[in-house]
Amino acid sequence: MPDISYLNALVIQVRRDILRQVHKVNSGHPGGSLGCTEFFVAMFQVIMDRKEGFEMDGIGEDLFFLSNGHISPVFYSVLARSGYFPVDELNTFRLINSRLQGHPTTHEGLPGIRVASGSLGQGMSVSIGAAQTKKLNNDDHLVFTLCGDGELQEGQNWEAIMYAAAHKVDNLVVTVDYNGQQIDGATDDVIPLGDLKAKFQAFGWDVLEIANGNDLQQVIDGMKKAKERTGNQKPVCVLMTTVMGNGVDFMMHTHAWHGKAPNDEQLEIGLSQNPETLGDY
Amino acid sequence: MKKYTDSGKKDTRSGFGAGLTELGKKNDNVVALCADLTGSLKMDEFQANHPERFFQVGIAEANMMGIAAGMTIGGKIPFTGTFANFSTGRVYDQIRQSIAYSHKNVKICASHAGLTLGEDGATHQILEDIGLMKMLPGMTVINTCDFNQTKAATLAIADHQGPVYLRFGRPKVPNFTPEDQVFEIGKAVQLQEGNDVTIVATGHLVWEALEAAQTLHDQGISADVINIHTIKPLDSKAILASVGKTGCVVTAEEHNYYGGLGESVARVLAENAPAPQEFVATQDTFGESGTPAQLMDKYGLNAEAIVNAAKKVIGRK
Fold first, then answer.
1. Does residue A23 form part of some domain?
2. ipTM summary value
3. Is B22 an active-site residue?
4. Closest chain B residue to A126 measured between Cα atoms?
5. Cβ–Cβ below 8 Å for B101 and A58
6. Nearest residue, CB atoms, A115 vs list B64, B69, B74
């Protein structure tokens, strides 16, 4: 595992990447991206057993699927800084002829992406399929998925949750970004999610919680625990509480920055709160 | 005229089942998923032979399409099975994003297509599915005409890299194509040679087209009959060669005239060699309950309708 001070520096640098990507094209989703920065760094730097390079089939390595594809800025930044493609390519985010589409896609052949996502509610089903293929291939690696909490309003998720338990897909860890926010406001005001822990448990899942998903060490410890809980006949769910917009004070604790880019002045404030660590692209 | 013999009526869905059974034995990467219609789709034998490669999804088609997309990652070739309505319209966005746009090697196998589903009525009789699926970039669309062709198509699509929509039906229909046929995706099959009119038919309407050609022959009209099993990619060359000879065309399909085979043929002709065309298809309507024969008669999808359309289109030359 890389040194924790390096990982903390990487978190700050990824936040800068997120802000700069969305600012440049005046579009994209900084809020959820910032909230999941620690999670992505933990997954790609510590938790997942990954191979060098990228092959679509991902045999003999852990796989990751992003269901809430709109938080592509954090995904792209961490993929680039984990060696999947040149960091400079972050300059092309959302531009014409770029591999870094607004929402992640396989269509342009960007290494690290295994399915298109963006239309919500589909990633869990896809990851279940990938996990079942791993079992058929006698590949004992794991499949990880991240989905949004608001995204759980999509009914397909509950089809998938029911299926994964029925088929004992126990090589799957689904993490829910539990930030309580969605485009129109707080999830409690839009469509309350109720007791998510009880719901997943009632559907037959093993549920863990990460109380502060913006504490890197907590995320690492929580996801390690989740890995240990696989292979026990039950799919594993991690309810990870995060703060949307984490790390940029005026973006925190609000849905306002879900899908809005900072202006020049706001960018400068955001960057000043996250001084350059590993070098900007 | 060539003679075609019905070797005994069989349902095309049983052709799919037979093909899947054979595939199960010869290709370990083939997996099958079904949304609570295993018997209707004739997937029982595959399920019995390979329980570890058969996945009962329950009544959850959206989830089934997503799982199938995911299963391709690692080299499996998933065949999904449910009715055509639930294979397309119900799950369009799942197919669009997770399968077509992501270019996943999923075979979407759809039974009970069209009016010939019969008594269940319009909720289940999809007449828009060909249009929905052919509009998806990269999607191959196949609509087979009898048991033997459906079995051959099922085997062939396993060897094709990329998403495929395979459409077939419920009723027993004449089985007249060769048992040992080689199914070539995108290649039209010339069934009759003629000079006065081209009849391009797909699915259950192919047999009707042969009967129509016989009736026309008896009245001194010779028809070129083309069996189009692959609607996308369409064999434009075969269609242009035939219409170049006859100067007019009738298209025949168990589908709405919006979005179906007829429109694809019209596009090919418009771009290359415009010619009069008549459409034997449903006229922008939903279906209803009834026996398959009653419905095909009421909605004008039979040999008689093809004969009338042929005479009309010849008059427009």
1. yes
2. 0.97
3. no
4. B70
5. no
6. B69
CATH of the domain at A102: 3.40.50.970
Q: CA B57 to CA B69: how far, in whole Å?
A: 14
A160 vs B52, B63, B103: nearest CB: B63
Identify whether A250 is part of a domain. yes
A147 falls within a domain: yes
Residue A99 lies in a domain: yes
Domain residues for the domain of A82 are 4-272
- Find the length of chain B: 317
Distance from CA of B49 to the nearest CA of A (A): 16
Helix (H, G, I), strand (E, B) or coil at A273: coil
Mutation choice for B interface testing from A57, A124, A125 by most B CBs within 10 A: A125
Q: What is the pLDDT along chain B (317 residues), one digit of tens a residue?
A: 999 999 999 999 999 999 999 999 999 999 999 999 999 999 999 999 999 999 999 999 999 999 999 999 999 999 999 999 999 999 999 999 999 999 999 999 999 999 999 999 999 999 999 999 999 999 999 999 999 999 999 999 999 999 999 999 999 999 999 999 999 999 999 999 999 999 999 999 999 999 999 999 999 999 999 999 999 999 999 999 999 999 999 999 999 999 999 999 999 999 999 999 999 999 999 999 999 999 999 999 999 999 999 999 999 99
User: Is B98 within 8 Å of A115 when comparing Cβ atoms?
Assistant: yes
* Residue of chain B minimizing CA distance to A154: B62
B71 contacts A132? CB cut-off 8 A: yes
The CA-CA-CA angle for residues A133, B59, B152, to 5°, reads 60
What does the alpha-carbon distance between residue B114 and residue B169 come to, in Å, rounded to a whole number? 8
Task: State the DSSP string of chain B.
Answer: -------S-EEHHHHHHHHHHHHHHH-TTEEEEESS-TTTTT-HHHHHH-GGGEEE--S-HHHHHHHHHHHTTTT-EEEEEEEHHHHTGGGHHHIIIIIIITT---EEEEES-SGGG-TT-TTT--SSHHHHHHTSTT-EEEE--SHHHHHHHHHHHHTS-S-EEEE--SSEE---S-TTPPP-TT--EEEE--SSEEEEE-TTHHHHHHHHHHHHHHTT--EEEEE--EEES--HHHHHHHHHHHS-EEEEEEEESSSSHHHHHHHHHHHH----EEEEEE-S----SS-HHHHHHHTT-SHHHHHHHHHHHHHT-
B189-315 is classed CATH 3.10.20.310: no
Which run of H or E residues covers position A79? helix A72-81
**Are B75 and B29 spatial neighbours (Cβ–Cβ below 8 Å)?**
yes
Chain A with chain B: Cβ pairs closer than 8 A: 119
Q: Do domains B10-173 and B189-315 have the same CATH topology?
A: yes
Largest Cα–Cα distance in chain A?
A: 53
Phi, psi of B200 (to 5 degrees): -105, 115
User: What CATH number does the domain located at B10-173 have?
Assistant: 3.40.50.970
Q: Hey, of B30, B59, B61, B67, which one would you mutate to test binding to chain A, going by the most A CBs within 10 A of its CB?
A: B67
**Alpha carbons B80 and A240: distance in angstroms, whole number:** 34
How many domains does chain A contain in total?
A: 1
Determine contact, residues B206/B227, Cβ cutoff 8 Å. Answer: yes
Q: Give the domain ranges of chain B.
A: 10-173, 189-315
